[in-house]
Amino acid sequence: MPTDPDANGDEDEAVTADENAQDDAFTRELARAKSLLDDEDVDAAFAGVVREGEVDTTFTQRAGDREEEGLQALALLAAHVRLVANEAGVEPSTVAGDAATLAGQVEEIPGSADAMPDE
Hints:
two-stranded antiparallel sheet, 2 strands, 55% helix
């Protein structure tokens, strides 16, 4: 029975297509984030990036009083928790609990699984 040297060719092409689709989605979402920040009517913004396993974030807001400031910050946090939960296919309460636990265990938030604290 002859063997086909390109027997895995279809698999390799599928992996490359998946990687390209992920890159395209990342590029689209990054462009969307930039456009959201380029709006003069923004009242509060949170941005976070991971580069080479390091997390860098910034937060800014303008509000009329402390209560509005607190609500804006919580609204951004809740939106982020929901986004992560949807991506992971879990309940928002699971993400919120895990994030709170992680934040309480580390001084700096790890940007990769290798930097996670031991349990």
